[in-house]
TrEMBL record:
Coiled-coil segments: none
Pyruvate flavodoxin/ferredoxin oxidoreductase pyrimidine binding domain location: 31-257
Species per Swiss-Prot/TrEMBL record: Paenibacillus hodogayensis
Signal peptide residue numbers: none
Gene3D superfamilies in UniProt: 3.40.50.920, 3.40.50.970
Protein name: Thiamine pyrophosphate-dependent enzyme
Keywords: 4Fe-4S, Electron transport, Iron, Iron-sulfur, Metal-binding, Oxidoreductase, Transport
Tagged with keyword Iron-sulfur: yes
Record Pfam families: PFOR_II, POR_N, TPP_enzyme_C
């Protein structure tokens, strides 16, 4: 069904509604809380992160019963959702961009086994290079996963489509997971007037208070089932055929559901949103947020006597092939704007599907112009809409398309403006001071390290230039630079996605004075291990002799902002392979680069944007991950913890780390750094807060050298021990834990800190532990 819209006032509908002024992300969360899903598995990634944040905030205040499960990565979140849907409940998720690609192998599994759920894809550029703004490059990967896909042009549509999507997913003729797509940083963050159901009961009356009964799930003890068996032909092709039929059924079912929804609310989302297409001779096809802007352009062209119209789909899987071909009868030329390229396909996915629709349904008269636009969040204005129409008008006048495929909005390169080196390479002589000596002790099997007074190392050049965009008081770079003071000679660094990466590499600038690599949040350890092995192999073959390297490189992977959650698997793999490299984690106790969500390194009870504090919830619900002990269990040569509040200790450990990484194998180090913005602390108090974390035994300083644990600073022996409560009271994110009503949480945290500290002391005293 396609309805030609003239922008008349919509009817109010049959149910009581209320007006809110919210963003697309807020409306996705609002719809989810009214539905009251059973489970949301999630992992933060911009710009979809806020959906979980808003739900958690409502959860803390007791507004819904949704169980929010923070996964170790998007792949894990997809697994959580699949398992929950197989158990018969209602399941919800939200993701974006590379996060969606990370979970993508799970998508056909869920649709192929026919377990419904709803997931919001807040569309964003897929890197590389890394760009966190909106286009449809992630959405186009979703086209072949077997999920029906509905589209949202504004926050109102995000709210409505999230409710429609669940009913569509659970319909007996469909039974498929459904994707709800909106534009990142356009729709997701813009505040708009939105009409909502005033009462949750009306939502439940529409979608059903409970999932439909009568379908198998894994919790029915009287009907045990096998989910996802191995399947040969001809069964596999039959299964795929049934899934395909369900997908095509979704078009008819969606059309029925949206009419029911329109009767209730007065808001209609026909399969095609046709604007002034009844007599149009030229048209533009756009999706989501840009499709509203183009309507103003249509009105302006109509005032000039040009018969213009626009088409925007509200559902693209199944693709409304017949409706589009019908809408384009009489249209002489159309420009199809794709917000992502199908590289090598002579156009984006939508233009090629529209061409197929015209060919299939016998409409070969309409000329089609393909333009790729708006990539990486590039804004789309009415002026751009006029240019897209100009391409169609010119084609209609000429009777042919002069340039069928091109990009729109790109700019030609200017050789005169090519980036030039600002920072000269650091001199080896300045990096190799000779002031630090590391010698193996044959008797103990350990390393003896001698370092000079720290003042003498201040002349050593910094590895990262000033001028980066970190927040005031950020401890990342003071901590990293202190560590690097203990490293002699040349380094190659790899940074995971995170604050340290984002604030130092805004193109065309870079604050890195040494060679730098970036790879995705989860895969840095594997990437750097490949670089390391290539170095040693090319050196063995004599291919690097011309460089006259006086010493070998030291390879350092820098991770943080939760990177040892999603990146834990590859890090353990690199450790077990024992590559000659250092993994250095800066621990700021959260995913700070995406808005301070909880990480597995966030301690219990701490406030983050996904572990809010309210009358029903008081911060994070489970204990923090001890990554140093996990990595020590892989039996790598050297593991250490460090802190800038004890600089000599950290510099010595850095020197040891370099020796082991150049001679024996992989090293893992963890330094605690302050994040005043998200710890809700004063900028100047960072060192004192870190010192208190060490002195309370929350973050003990120790090393594990060839399997033997050595505590390098014991606050009890120095008579400098402080209570955990004193440390917690120094930060706004944890002050609530010192209140009487949170005494149980504080006691649990103190008990766990003491347990880990006592275990560490036992290991220190016994070399066999």
């Amino acid at each position: 069904m396609a309805i030609d819209i003239k922008r008349e006032e919509q009817h109010t509908g049959k149910v009581e509604q209320r007006i809110v002024y919210e963003s697309g992300n807020e409306m996705a969360a609002y719809a989810a809380h009214q539905i009251n899903y059973h489970i949301m598995g999630y992992f933060p990634i911009s710009p979809s992160t806020e959906v979980a944040q808003f739900l958690d905030l409502m959860k803390a205040n007791g507004q819904h019963d949704v169980v929010l499960i923070p996964a170790d990565g998007e792949h894990g979140s997809a697994g959580v959702c699949y398992g929950a849907s197989a158990a018969g409940g209602r399941v919800f998720n939200a993701t974006s961009a590379n996060g969606y690609l990370y979970m993508i192998e799970q998508m056909p599994v869920q649709s192929g086994t026919r377990f419904p759920m709803v997931m919001n894809l807040v569309c964003r550029s897929v890197s590389g290079p890394l760009d966190i703004h909106g286009d449809h490059s992630d959405l186009y990967y979703a086209l072949n996963t077997g999920w029906p896909i509905v589209m949202c042009r504004d926050p109102q549509a995000v709210y409505d489509m999230n409710i429609i999507a669940l009913k569509l997913a659970e319909d007996p003729e469909v039974r498929l997971p459904v994707l709800v797509a909106s534009d990142g940083y356009f729709t997701s963050h813009q505040k708009r007037r939105v009409m909502t159901f005033a009462h949750r009961q009306d939502v439940h009356d529409f979608v059903g208070a409970q999932p439909p009964a009568g379908y198998p799930d894994v919790l029915d003890r009287n009907n045990p089932i096998t989910v996802g068996p191995y399947m040969n032909e001809p069964d596999y092709i039959n299964n795929c055929y049934q899934q395909s039929m369900a997908m095509y059924n979704a078009e008819r079912v969606y059309d029925r559901i949206r009419q029911e929804y329109a009767e209730l609310t007065g808001r209609d989302y026909p399969i095609l949103d046709l604007y002034r297409m009844d007599d149009a001779e030229v048209a533009v096809f756009l999706m989501n947020s840009a499709s509203e802007i183009i309507k103003d352009v249509v009105d302006q062209l109509r005032e000039q006597g040009i018969k213009a119209g626009s088409i925007a789909p509200n559902i693209i899987r199944p693709f409304p092939q017949k409706q589009i071909a019908e809408a384009l009868k009489g249209v002489r030329a159309i420009t199809v704007g794709d917000r992502a390229d199908s590289y090598g396909g002579h156009g984006g996915n939508m233009v090629n599907e529209i061409k197929a629709a015209l060919f299939t349904h016998g409409n070969s008269d309409t000329l089609v112009v393909s333009r790729i636009y708006g990539l990486g969040g590039k804004d789309f204005y009415a002026e751009d809409g006029h240019n897209l129409f100009r391409f169609a008008i010119e084609a209609a006048e000429k009777g042919y398309v002069e340039k069928p495929f091109d990009y729109y909005g790109h700019t030609p390169g200017d050789p005169a403006k090519a980036p030039k080196r600002v920072l000269n390479p650091m001199k080896y002589e300045d990096l190799k001071t000779g002031l630090i000596t590391v010698t193996p002790d044959a008797a103990s099997g350990k390393l003896n390290v001698r370092i000079p007074p720290l003042r003498s190392l201040t002349k050593k050049p910094k590895r990262i230039a000033p001028g980066h965009g970190a927040c005031p008081g950020c401890g990342i770079f003071s901590g990293l630079e202190l560590f690097f003071k203990g490293i002699e000679g040349d380094i190659v660094t790899l940074f995971h996605t995170g604050c340290a990466m984002v604030v130092t590499t805004g193109y065309p600038y870079s604050a890195h004075k040494a060679t730098y690599i970036h790879n995705l949040f989860q895969n840095g350890a594997a990437t750097l291990s490949g670089t390391v092995e290539m170095f040693w192999e090319r050196k063995r073959r004599g291919e690097l002799d011309h460089l006259n390297l006086p010493d070998d490189f030291t390879f350092v992977m820098v991770t943080g902002d939760g990177g040892m959650d999603i990146g834990m698997g590859p890090a353990i793999g690199a450790a077990l392979r024992n590559h000659k490299m250092i993994i250095l984690e800066y621990d700021n106790e959260g995913y700070m680069n995406t808005g301070a969500q909880l990480s597995y390194s966030t301690p219990i009870g701490h406030r983050t944007s996904t572990s809010n504090v309210g009358k029903k919830q008081a911060g994070k619900l489970f204990h923090h991950k001890d990554t140093a002990q996990i990595m020590a269990a892989t039996n790598i040569p050297y593991v250490f913890t460090g802190s800038e509040s004890y600089p000599q200790d950290l510099v010595k450990k850095a020197a040891k780390a370099q020796w082991y990484a150049q001679h024996e194998g992989l090293v893992y180090g963890k330094i605690l750094i302050t994040c005043p913005l998200n710890w809700l602390s004063e900028d100047q108090e960072g060192t004192n807060i870190i010192d208190a974390a060490v002195s309370s035994n929350f973050f003990p300083l120790y090393e594990v050298e060839n399997g033997i644990t050595n505590i390098t600073y014991n606050p009890e022996e120095k008579n400098k021990a402080v209570s955990v409560a004193d440390w917690l009271g120094s930060m706004g994110k944890t002050k609530h834990m010192t209140k009487p009503e949170n005494a149980d949480a504080l006691a649990s945290f103190e008990q766990e800190v003491n347990r880990r500290w006592n275990r560490l002391k036992a290991k220190h005293e016994n070399p066999y532990l």
